[in-house]
C-alpha cells in the first residue's frame, strides 16, 4: 500500500536513528524520527529486509497535542497489536528520495551474539551482542538479549514477543546501571514493542541484569568474548494462560469478565436486575447511531443481554480509517459496571456504586447513579462517574425513534460526569417494551439535538 508523504508545512525533519536499530539476520528494525514544525516528535518503526529489499511498517508512536502518546500498529490499529504491512513511501517523500533513509544502504555493524550463561529452568537464555558492546574503563555499554523458550503476549497491546533486547550502561564498580532502550521482537525478528528512554538515570541494577553483569565485567575486551556459544534460532510455542484483548468485533464478554466486581457492587447489581422482569426483553439489539449535523460521524452499536440481566454494549466509531471500539457492561445500558475501549491498555472496573435506576420507569421522576471506577488508561488511579436524569411528563410512540421499535418510550434529560469532572448533557429514551435505555441526543443552548437511529434489528 502507498503511504502518503507528510505535508511539507507540518514536517520539520525526518531522520534515521542508527543507535536504536535492531538487526536480526537479513532484516533491520529501524526507528525513523519525524520532527514536526510545532515541536512534536513522532516515531515510526520500519522493518527492512535487505535480502529482498522489501519494507514493512511496524508501528508508530504519535505525540498528540494533549501531551499523550498514541501507539498505532500497522496503519489503522490504535493501541492494539496488528501484524506489519508492506510499506511503500510516495516518490516525493524524503523516505522515498533521501539515501540516508534507505536503511539497507547504511553501515551497521552486524550483531554477534554470545551466550552469557546456561539456560534457566524455563529454558530462557541470556546473550550479549559483542559487536555492538564496548568497555570504557569501569563502564560497560552493552546490548543484551533474553531469548525466551516460549512466545508471550504483552497485555497492554496484545503484542507477541519471544525475544527482549536492552541497551544498558553498567558501572562495574558500584553495581549501578541504566537502560537506554528496550525492544520486544517476535520469533520472526520483527519488532512488536519498543521503549526509548528520554532521560535515563543510574540506579541499582535489577537482579536479572546484575547476574549477567558479573561475568561481563570480568572481560577486558568484549569483542573477544565467546561465552557459551552463539545464538541458535529455535521454534517457540505460545506460553500457557497468555492475556488477550477483547474480541470487540463479536462483542465477546470473556476478557472483560476476567476482572471481578466487588461484592458491594454485585449487591447493587442484583437489586437492580435480580428478577427476570427486570432484564432486557431482547437477546440482541443492533443499530447505527448517526450523529447530529450534516457529515456527522456514525457509530455502529450492538447491545447484548447477559445471563445476569445486565447489558453488554459495543460501539464502533471510525476515527479517520482507524476503528475505536468501546465495550461496556451496564445496568439497563445506563449504569456503568465495567468498560474497556480499544485505546486503553486495561478496563475501567467499578469499585463502588450507588444507583436509583430501576424498571419500570415512571414519568416525572429523578434517577441517578454514582460510581468510583479504576482508570484503565492510568494504572493505579481511580475516577468518579455519575449521571443525574429526570424523565419527562409524557410518553411517546416508539416508532417515532425507528419503525423497528414497538410500544412506547419516554425521554430523560441527563447531566453526565464521565470521569473528567466536566458536566455533559445527554438525553436518553427508555423503551418500555425492551426495558432498555438508549442515548438519543443532548441539549445545546437549551435546544434538543437528536441522533438518527437506523438499521435497527431487534432479536428476541
Percent helix range: under 10%
> How many helix segments?
3
What's the CATH architecture name of the largest domain? Beta Barrel
Radius of gyration over alpha carbons? 27 Å
Low-confidence sequence ranges? 1-6
The multimeric state of the shown protein is single chain
Secondary structure class reads mainly beta
- Let me know the average pLDDT: 92
- Measured by DSSP, the beta-strand proportion falls in over 45%
β-strand number: 32
What would the CATH topology of the largest domain be?
YmcC-like fold
Q: Number of folding domains?
A: 3
CATH domain class of the largest domain: Mainly Beta
From the N-terminal CA to the C-terminal CA, the straight-line distance is 43 Å
Q: What overall geometry do the principal axes of the alpha carbons give?
A: elongated
Major sheet attributes: 14 strands, antiparallel
